[in-house]
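Bench log, entry 3. Co-assembly request; chain sequences pasted below exactly as received.
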Amino acid sequence: MSTATTVLHDEHHAHYQPGIMRWLTTTNHKDIGTMYLTFALIMFMVGGAMILAVRAELFQPGLQFLKPEFFNQLIGIHALVMIFAALMPAATGFANWMLPLMIGAPDMALPRLNNWGFWLLPPAAILLTLPFTLALFGIGDGALATGWTFYAPLSVQGGIGVDFAIFAVHLLGISSVMGSINIIVTIFNMRAPGMTMMKLPLFAWGWLITAFLLIATIPVLAGAVTMLLTDRHFGTHFFNAAGGGDPILFQHLFWFFGHPEVYILLLPVWGFIPHILSAFSRKPIYGYKAQVYSFWAIGILSVVVWAHHFLTAGMPVPALLYFMYSTMSISVPLAVLFFCWIATMWKGSMSFETPMLFATGWIILFGIGGLTGLVLADVAADAQYHHTYFVVAHFHYTLFAGGMMGIMAGVYYWLPKMTGHMYNETLGKLHFWLTAIAFNITFIPQFFLGLAGMPRRIPDYALQFAEFNMISSIGAFILGLSQLIMVYNIVSCVRGGKKATDKPWEGAQGLEWTLPSPPPYHSFTEQPVVE
Amino acid sequence: MALHFIKKAGPGLMLSLWSLVAHAEFSWNFPKPVTPMAVDTLHVHNKFMVIILAIFIIVLGIMIYSIINHRKSKGYQAATFTGPSTRSQLIWTMVPFAILIYIDFVLMGIPAYHSVVLMEDTKNGADMVLKVTGMQWRWQYEYMDGDAKGIKFVSNLATPEDQIHNKAAKGEHYLLETDNHVVLPVNKKVRILLTSNDVIHTWWVPQFGSARDAIPGFLRETWVKIEEPGTYRGQCKELCGKGHGFMPIVVDAVPEDKYKEWVAAKKTDLAAASAGADKAWSKDDLIAHGKEVYEKNCAVCHQSNGQGLPPTFPALAGSKVINGPIFDTSGKLIANSHLDRVFNGKNVMPAWKAVLNDVDIAAVVTFERNSFGNTLGDAVQPAQVKALR
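Structure output for the full assembly:
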């Protein structure tokens, strides 16, 4: 298909309303994908700015800039923004943009639902952050101050920020469930002829498991926060022992969602990283079937290990042992994935453009997150690690390195396809090295802080923690500022740059590379056939 | 602008960087363990760290070998395999997983099992019982049996506000000092019962190797057997509101005879304090004592100047509740009066009857009625508070 004819073809079909109405009313998967990705990028910067304020406060012992109550609001909203408004929308954005191209479909199966799913996000983000502004005008006492986990009874005690966050979570949850339904229906019904389930791109498989996990667990979260709402305002006692309730019930409900959530964030990334490794190793994906089965295994295991997030709450010995061994067993399918990723690189003909740098760094850093997760499963040692900076470092290795840096690999990998332009490779590489190094400067000291006994979520700390905190804060600022390079690179790539070919990466496989860059507004007017 | 900033912040930054190098006391592992549980935990932790470090280095080594050698720029031709193709290859790919399962469930799993059983062995052979109650934002300790039965006190942060707000040099045990240390005998198994008055807290002293949540309305338990005399410090580690970073734990572990001396002395103190409830106090004495009680217990929310942090923590200055009567004409406590609010609590306000003695409550109420611009001029006698119990 030549580019010239496609452009004509494109113009013929691409009739959309002018200006902002195009974006408000669009049912096009690429437009919606673009909006998801833009929203994720903006919220990534917002969440990052919040945590830089926190790291500035923690630069030295003593209270410098932030009052403790404001500090507590920042850490909780940082987490909710990064998880629900940055990582999840970024993954959904990729799904919208790329799934139809990868499985040879003209669009997503349910385009109007798709539009609604996105447009629930901005109101949710506003609900989350509005209490900060309201507090400036003397209304309420600021945003959710319980950490992102909403633990009762602290959240029952809290101000209007809790109610705002509850409704934000409801909106985000509805949006996620709608997105998931759309993805499942699309994958099941709109694959190109010949593309059997076991020929699906791994990205589609990862998203399929994520979508099922979301549908299974988001309603539990919605129920839990609704119970919290009725406890707060309508006199119920779900989480109040004096009324026959139990505060730990909330933790069970929350983490029944919260643990699968980790894999909800990671599975889409595990899906597309093999595509990148394969493209830049110029070698097929190793162990496709093994990876698909591992996705299934991890998806199933993820819903039966939740209580390892609150082992110090007190449980009978058999329950402790069950949650310890079931958590450890997740390491087996995860090791299969690591094995396959490295085996995909092994004896390839590798080159290290930015996506490959991110993918390689991602394996190493996510590996640290995985290995520290293995020791956290141990109940007795967990009594020491739990709620210290060791845990903070661990989950940033899984969610920043394992999540965000994976997303960045995807951004650089697909940016030429999406925009039709090459990004600046030098700046991309600079962004990678600064991110990888600053990330470690930030979080390696936090492992040692945790071991030495620094609890998380404290606005001020004892003097023996001063040095590591200072190093960590310096790292955090470098890390935060380096992200501006990525923003600049993305913006200038959207605006122009060297023309990208249909397949800018020599070793890339998959249907999306058979279309021009950028792909026409309506992809695949004729369905491709997969052998 | 930037230059101005450097001029202003530069010396401070240089100073902190210098102090980083000069006074660096980096701690790389758990602090020295002093209980059997902590010794076991450290042992298990060290073993696990060696194992995961070994796995990490081996896997990283393989990756680095591949990254160096299998490069396009070196003209390396890509292979095409997508999985193990021969029987022996298949067996070799299974080996790492067999090793991993062995590590998970034998090498790590068996010691972890024994640690769990040891950690949960709270009831067998306990020599004494200590009840710990978490509350925003202090700990209360109660000795439940033996000679010490009946000893009950609250332990508050003792670090001055000025140090926290950088107006004074920070002391050696900044944020890790309390007004009343818990005293425990060494080499005795102490069963610790935990609960909370408001939200969830976690009682944690790193050198004891045990952390357990204090949950309102429930009892949880853990145990310690301190094997070395000394002073051990810890902190709350479950987010419990704005004072979460400011509720430390300090335990003095002393030999048996010293412990007995402490118990006797503490009992005398407590007896003297409760005797105070029966005598009539002058208003000035009540206000003077009340100010101390206020600073320790109330100022964290209602602030030293009585202005509070509305809307959660209301101002006491000019408060309707404070500026109303306490007892009705027949001498009965009026519901929702000042004393009722302090004594029984409401919503976020704790019920101080569980924490403070009669003298403290009478004194602090009297103080609040005659401070921050409140000029009621009356006084509440400890005996009146005692009569409410």
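Chain A touches chain B through 98 residues (CB under 8 Å). Residues 1-12 of chain A have pLDDT under 50 and may be disordered.
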